[in-house]
Every structure is written in structure tokens, then in C-alpha cells.
Design brief:
The protein is α+β, with helices and mostly antiparallel strands. It has helices at residues 12-26, 34-42, 93-109, 123-132, 147-156; strands at residues 4-6, 49-53, 60-69, 74-84, 114-116. The protein has one domain (4-156): Gcn5-related N-acetyltransferase (GNAT) (Aminopeptidase, 3-Layer(aba) Sandwich), CATH 3.40.630.30. The N and C termini lie far apart (53 Å).
């Protein structure tokens, strides 16, 4: 069984490789530099955490951040990236990574729930998450303020 561990600075190259593979798998761009990822994970004020499976090459990973919801009454973790290598899919690694996120975030900031997003054009991922008990909330619509619009908003203040 593949071991899962909290990523440390020496894991940055294989973590980056896994995140690039995820981006390729889902057709997303990957503009994150290794320096920016290292700062976010291991800098003086880390804002995210990562779990990684695999030693010389990544077989799975989860990148997550703290989350607070007044409507859920506490803290959780937002899983921004979950990836399992094709050769490892269907073997329970994705579920084990999510369990690791719950355990780690629970220890770090008392997280009691997970939140994530899944693309409409990824029905396999949607079925995986729903099988684990994740719910779609039709009354919620994820929105994003892209960098250009964020710059305009900053300038308007």
C-alpha cells in the first residue's frame, strides 16, 4: 500500500510534477511557479498544506487550505487539488488522501468538513466524490474574481 505523508520542502519537485500532471489530465493551464508554490507551502507564513503519495515520482497528492463557514458552524478544509496517477486509480488512494486531509486539517485547525469543486465535464470525479458522500448544493454557485478584475477592484478602493 502506498504511504501518504505531509509534504516537506524536499518534496517540492515531485509535488510540482503531480500538480502539472493534474493540470494536463483536466486540461487546465499550470502557471504556478515552483517558487510561488514553495512560498505558499513552506514560506514564513504558509497558507496551504499538501499530502503526497509516492517517493521518487508522485502517485497521488492533495493540496488544501483552511476554510471557515458560519453556516456550517466551524472550520473545514478546502481541497483545491486532488490527483491520483492513472495507474493508481480505483485502488482507494484518492479516498485515503481525502481521509488524510481530514485528519491533518483536524489536527492543525479543528477542521470538521471538506469542500471542493469538480468540473462538469469530469463525470468520473463527480461519481467518486458523490460515492464518498459529497453533496452538490444547487443553491450555491462558485464565483472567482480573476487577477485582472481583482486589480481593478483594488484600484477602485
Amino acid at each position: 500500500m502506498t504511504s501518504i505523508r505531509k509534504a516537506t520542502a524536499p518534496d517540492l519537485p515531485i509535488l510540482s510534477d503531480g500538480l502539472r500532471a493534474l493540470a494536463r489530465d483536466i486540461g487546465d493551464p499550470y502557471p504556478m511557479s515552483d517558487a510561488a508554490l514553495a512560498e505558499a507551502l513552506f514560506g514564513p507564513a504558509p497558507i496551504c498544506h499538501a499530502l503526497i503519495a509516492g517517493h521518487d515520482a508522485p502517485t497521488g497528492l492533495a493540496l488544501f487550505t483552511p476554510l471557515v463557514s458560519t453556516s456550517l458552524g466551524g472550520t473545514g478544509a478546502f481541497v483545491s487539488d486532488l490527483w491520483v496517477a492513472g495507474t493508481q486509480r480505483g485502488l482507494g488512494l484518492g479516498e485515503r488522501l481525502l481521509c488524510g486531509v481530514l485528519e491533518t486539517s483536524g489536527q492543525l485547525w479543528g477542521a470538521r468538513y471538506l469542500r471542493l469543486t469538480v468540473y462538469d465535464d469530469n463525470p468520473h470525479a463527480l461519481r467518486f466524490y458523490e460515492r464518498l458522500g459529497f453533496l452538490r448544493k444547487a443553491s450555491e454557485h462558485p464565483l472567482i474574481l480573476m487577477p485582472d478584475a481583482a486589480g481593478r477592484l483594488r484600484g477602485a478602493a
